[in-house]
Amino acid sequence: MARYKGPRGAAGWALGLTGALTAACFAAATRGGRMARHPATPPRASEPPPSPEKATLAARRLNRSAGTLAASVLFDSAVEHYRGDFENRAMYTPIVTSALALAVSAHGTFDKSPAAHKIRDGVYLLTGVVGLIGTGFHVWNVVQKPGRFIWQNLFYGAPLGAPMAIGLSGLLGFFSERVRDTPIGQTPRLFGLPAGRVIGAVSGAGMVGTTAEAGLLHFRGSFHDPFMALPVTMPPAAAAALTNASLGAARTDRRLTRWWLRATAIMGVSGTVFHAIGVGRDMDGWRNIQQNLLNGPPIPAPPAFTGLALAGLAALDLMEDDSDV
Amino acid sequence: MSDNPLHTPRALNGRAPDVFRKGAWVPMREYSQNEAVDFVVIGTGAGGGPLIARLAEMGYSVIGFDAGAYFRPLEDFASDETSQSQLYWTDERLIDGANPIKMGSNNSGKAVGGSTVHFAMVSLRFRPEWFQSRTKLGYAVDWPLDWREMWRYYDKAERDLAIAGPISYPWGPKRPRYPYRAHEIGGAAEWLARGAEAMGYQWSETPLATVSAPRGDSPSCVYRGFCRVGCSTNAKQSQLVTYIPRALKAGAEIRDLAMVGRIETNAQGLATGVHYHREGQWHFQRAKQVIVAGYAIETPRLLLNSATDRFPDGLANRSGYLGRNLMVQSNQAVYGRMKEMVRWNKGPPSLTITEHWNYEDKKDFFGGYCWMAQGPLPLEWSAAVSSSRGLWGEALRQKMMDYNHQVGLKMVGEMLPSMENRVTLAEEKDQYGLPITRITYGWQDNDKTMIQHALGEMQRSLELVGAQDIWRQENDTNHLAGTARMGFSAESSVVDADCRSWDVPNLWICDGSIFPTTGGVNPSLTITAIALRTADRIQTLHRQGKITL
Amino acid sequence: MSDTLPNPLDERYPGYDVLDKRLTPSWNDATRRVIDARLAVPREARFLNALEWRTLSALCDRVMPQPTYRPPVPLAAYVDQKLLSDTRPGFRDAALPPQRETWKNGLAVFEAEAMARHDQSFHALTPSEQEALMIEAGAGRLGHAGWSAEQMQLFFNGHVLTDILGAYYAHPTAWSEIGFGGPASPRGYVRMQNDRRDPWEAIEATPETVEKTRKENRNVR
């Protein structure tokens, strides 16, 4: 058997289009330079003093990435916890917190004020803590099941990695507020380190975690569609490049990393299209939405990659704005 | 529905039903009755389906005959136990003996795709030692097949059927990863797992022939739970949606609603073709080679009914083994009621399994058994409650209200072969004017000992997870085997290791009836693996000039 | 149909009607066709004669007594229909003739024994008198001229119980009664774990929640 037949008709066209789009991004990423809006790193001597506008801009970009992650978690956890019938009241928590995180992130994205916002800060902190607690709940769910940490429970029990997505949203938001708080005349720093490097490393690690989750679930789906290999190949490469940029030498050429991150961000968004096509491919497609939205591929999940890639891009901006990095 | 597949053949005029689309067709090659095709295959189930596909793919001309209808699951299958009896072989068969076997829904399909259209999709490998149960385990007889070769054909069968199974299977020699991941286990299946853990036994997700993610035109399983009355999702990887479409693509012809009544043999003792009944009359199809794949009742029936002066006891029956050593599998169960809402009808019925007693030899009986989780639909369930508990009236109606709280464990156990368990022809005739079968069956002491052992074990498992109102279903059996045994010599078997009959060199038998022993797992995957091997062997023998085509 | 409220304990899934799902994705066209035809069964004897029909109806009332707060499932009509179409299960105990003959003989034995013992037709006996005869038949102790006790036992256990229960539990009314989800294609189920309910599945009541559950179940589809 095993003769794989791709989706037909409109689905096929959509698939082809997103595929082409992704491929174009790849090409652009590898060709790099020509399309770059950022000029090559200027020589050290002509570096102007750190500007608060740049810190605020970076902070707003981080708000945007935190918001993207929060949006993904909001819809994904709503669907998944509905599937779980909200058996435990605590299952409403990520929906509430991710909605709040989304709201304050939207606020932050449009807020040009150069100082941290108390409510935003509080929400982000709360969101980060909820991610940690959620992980605890999910571990608890898995160990209650027969066989505990066996593939069956990793596939179908509460997903162990999922709560950290909202945790990351909170963490990135929290970083954003710190970057925004950067005193005039200084470069943004976190824990005494250049902010760009910290955020880059965190985003890279987050991307690896998200890849692991996508890999697990795509493995559950037997990689039945060749496109399912994309989210387990592109983001790790992006994460490696980003980590290298974050931990590596100062003043290096990071254009390739930038393009990889852009491509990954687009892949995250196009993943929703792929997943929507997947839902349509299940029994009776969109007419059987009550089933397929829950049992088919999770439509809101892939933009988590977008959120992290955007954070990575913001981190790169911070690094380039910092003459020491 | 534009046509009734039960009354009018669909595979006609150069086209066959497209099983994936309502009202649609796929092109089909057709052969003339006067043309002696390379192969006719009688039966399109677990044995016939792979043979038709593989032989056609090798370039041979092949016609597959089936007495049943050619369904399009999406338009023909209702979610209904009663009406889906259209999938079963419901022609009359007489049963007798000390433990008469219930036929029909239990073990006999009548449709293109055979019983795989309504099987429970459980796709397990034999324990290697079972191929040498006489030498290695001290009972019954050895098979003329080597388990290592079978292991390779199991690999192939599992890939072809996209079996969804666990990442690593706890019992037996290493096997490759199943092509698809195991399904989520349901409530009833979870109680099996918890019971097994409490007993210190390993458990596993059951490898099933239903996809857990889309595959070609098959969407993933929707867990509707009507698997045993036909899959209207097409997630089930039955012959109807796997090998049969492959066969058509490779140029085979399928003749549905075509009942083969007799194999013609010539003066040289060679088969020359088959007489079959279709569209109200008898026809004759010439063929160079005839392969019978009608399963353990219809296969001996056809061969017995093809007797001639030269073969007075039926074709391929010099040994006297044809129709004998019929085996079913013990299918006893223990049921109980949980405090929780289990809703055991959701999902495939046998999502978890323990093969502990197939691989543990410290026991006071021969053979092995496994047990699996259960999820019967109301009709089957009411019959079990009524017959096993002797209930009817208000008492039964009240017990039935516990339906959503029920759990159960059901064994599949190895019964040993006996010459006295057999299929013979009766005087009575069926709608085609052919003699119907008489099926005689009785349990032996070893069978009874195993059943009691299994019932005790399954009961303990349910007690350990706190089930209430526990009771035993002691009378059920399923699956068929035997009646045309494969063996080492023409004196004590019907076919050789290649499924070729000892007596008629161009007559082959390839279905569950060639099993010398039946093992303690569901037989379908083994039948399919043997069919894949037989196709390869036929090609090899042909190349060596040992088959005339 | 009476207006009396049912005993709360008798109704485990109050208000749940599997037929409410008829137009949802849980039913496909093939299912609608089959169930529509089942619900439209003619409620009269078409194969059996009048006396046999009355004997059969009495057996149905004993094998599956039905509550009075809802329309009964016309069990005798389904058995008669099965005999009319001669739908068979695919096997027959060698001690019995084909099913039509078996049914006619078996019904005649119940009638003859009723006349012999009570001088009344089987259908006119009290329920407990009927049950006594049925229990004897099921235990292999009820034979009558030309029809052995063994045949009667095979008839009772293999045909009377099987066919009548088979008719009852093939009916949407029975599915609703036991909280079975009924037809499920193209839409199957999502929530597989214990104590998890998909929104299109019946809610079980406790004695305290009967009326609340009845309201909730009316929206299940």
Automatic annotation (TrEMBL), chain A:
The chain crosses the membrane at residues 122-143, 155-175, 259-279. Residues 40-52 have a biased composition (Pro residues). It comes from the Bacteria. Residues 34-54 are annotated as: Disordered. Keywords: Membrane, Transmembrane, Transmembrane helix. This is Uncharacterized protein. It comes from Asaia krungthepensis NRIC 0535.
From TrEMBL, chain B:
Transmembrane segments: none annotated. The keyword Oxidoreductase applies. Belongs to the GMC oxidoreductase family. This is Glucose-methanol-choline oxidoreductase. Signal peptide: none annotated. It comes from Asaia krungthepensis NRIC 0535. It comes from the Bacteria. PANTHER family: LONG-CHAIN-ALCOHOL OXIDASE. InterPro entries: FAD/NAD-bd_sf, GMC_OxRdtase_N, GMC_OxRtase_C. Residues 417-531 form the Glucose-methanol-choline oxidoreductase C-terminal domain.
UniProtKB/TrEMBL annotation, chain C:
Residues 209-221 have a biased composition (Basic and acidic residues). Residues 200-221 are annotated as: Disordered. InterPro entries: Gluconate_2DH_su3. Pfam families: Gluconate_2-dh3. This is Gluconate 2-dehydrogenase. It comes from Asaia krungthepensis NRIC 0535. The lineage of its organism: Bacteria, Pseudomonadati, Pseudomonadota, Alphaproteobacteria, Acetobacterales.
